[in-house]
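TEACHING EXERCISE
Course module: macromolecular assemblies
Task: Read the component lines below, then compare them to the predicted structure of the full complex.
Student: A.B.
Group: 4
Components provided:
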Amino acid sequence: MAEEFLNLEAITKTFGTNTVIKDLDLSFNSGEFVSLLGPSGCGKTTVLRMIAGFEKPTKGRIFADGREITHLKPSQRNVGMVFQSYALFPNLNVRDNIGFGLKVAGVPRAKARERVAEMLELIGLPDLGRRYAFELSGGQQQRVALARALAPSPRMLLLDEPLSALDAKIRVSLREQIRNIQRELGITTIFVTHDQEEALSISDRIVVMNAGHIEQVGAPFEVYNRPATPFVANFVGTLNRVEARVKNAAAQEVAIGEQSVVLKKLPATVRDGEPIVLALRPEALNLVNGADDGICLNARVEAVSFLGSVIRVGVAVGDTRLHVDLFNDRRSAPPQPGETLRVGFKDEDVISVTA
Amino acid sequence: MRGNRFWSWVVFGLGAAYFLLPLLATLEFSLSIRRDGYTLDAYRNVFADPGFQQTFSYSLIIGLCTIIVGIVIIMPAAYFVRLRMPQIRPVVEFLTLMPLIIPPIILVFGYIRLYNSSSFLPLTGSVMGTNILLTLGYVALAMPYMYRAIDTGLRTIDVQTLTEAATILGASRLRILTRIIFPNVITAVLSGAFLTLAIVMGEFVLASLLNRPGFGPYMQNIGANRAYEPSALAIISFVFTWSAMVAIQLLARFAPKSSARKD
Ligand SMILES: Nc1ncnc2c1ncn2[C@@H]1O[C@H](COP(=O)(O)OP(=O)(O)OP(=O)(O)O)[C@@H](O)[C@H]1O
Ligand SMILES: [Mg+2]
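Instructor-supplied answer key:
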């Protein structure tokens, strides 16, 4: 079903002597919601601004709908953009802000008014048309900014950390609202964020970026559960790194601190005595009562944080500190710091074994 | 604490006296044209003098032209410096200070040399040309105030992002400047405009050396030939200037809040 709509081909961007984006290839399907995720300074905004036309690639080409747009001006690209700082025009009221693009495009007044009303309805603020930006909350301002971007019916929507300036609760409800509107309109959307939870929760696909290149592109489920690189494993979600040593490669025996376990997933290339690191998600670890056929380690509880539906238990296995995520169960009390218990995991839940 | 308060009042009183006493003396003198008590005759004479009316309106018109030309030149300049070359802002700021450093007399002799009737652009050859030259000279004199006022206004808005937001919606540079940027800095622009007007109304050197009937030369001329009227004139121009200042304050207070909330 998905046809490619936007293509970045071998894009390089250099500021002075600083190469910010290196030879990046990326394509977006029509109607898709894609997040660009990565740490601060990795070049997410730069990629978005090149798609918008505010920056020109030093090398490489950009295609939209089969036509090259590399050298088009921002105003010729027919894209909508939402900024982190909302950037509503302070001298115009909500209606005139939303209608600005229509007015510039010369849409007849009656038609523009109709479209503005439609947009106000879409963002759920039908009665605030006469307000000015300073009379709106941050969340309302950002919704108006979204309506302003969408009013001229752009062929794609670019959002640069639109939720970063908002507080946690509004951030969650607004991201769902953005996603719903996007689904309703079926508009190709690129969403920049450095918040992995945000990216995981609303995207069709996630592009994980690091230092100007792409680490992995994939659906949230895939990126989280099958990270392609150690960077992705670390950046997306919480990761436990269990330091271990190969005890007997032939018998697949591994020493973790003083304890030894059998690890079927052990690569054939390791040799006896070699140090290795096992990567595990906190939810892959569980507390073991009695017998278990998986791998078990003795551990001491160091900290317990109650996060609501999840209880995150910090434990120490020898010198290694691990996070264990448990579902909250109102019938049994969480472990207490100082307690000793057994932590288990399954072979197939080990994300990676690295030397 | 009490002592402190006392001494601050003393200092304030001395300062006020320093500024107000000459003013009061001038006011008193301007009212004493007759032996038998205070009268407004000096003011009546001034207002009745066709020279006053002509020069006052001449300077007022030149002042308004100066403001318009100043805004048209300085507004886009300040905007583009903020948008494209923020790193050269200190240099531009220094350049706009030049008219304060270079005396107007040098400026006007430069103009006369450059634009005299045998030059490539003989502006001083005609009355209209000289008016234009005078206006441009005033634009230069007002530049330090105008630039600063506009730049301060631009600082209160996010020029870069607002410009980008409007650009991607298809707006041209001219439209962004006139519909988005200018309305948001209008209060600041007006305060620059009133300062400009105050400067132009009292300016003597340029008007006199270019031989235009400005209000400044008129005041000077009256001052040299009359006794009481100059004081009345001084009070009138003082009131005019202060009204301009009060207007700035009022505009600043009643202007709609223009900066967006950031929460
Ligand atoms: N106009 C510019 N001139 C010079 N360097 C720039 C410019 N814009 C961005 N950079 C550099 O490019 C790199 C990537 O910047 P970019 O803004 O794309 O990062 P980002 O991933 O969006 O980060 P953040 O999450 O902090 O917004 C940074 O090192 C930045 O300093
Ligand atoms: Mg960014």
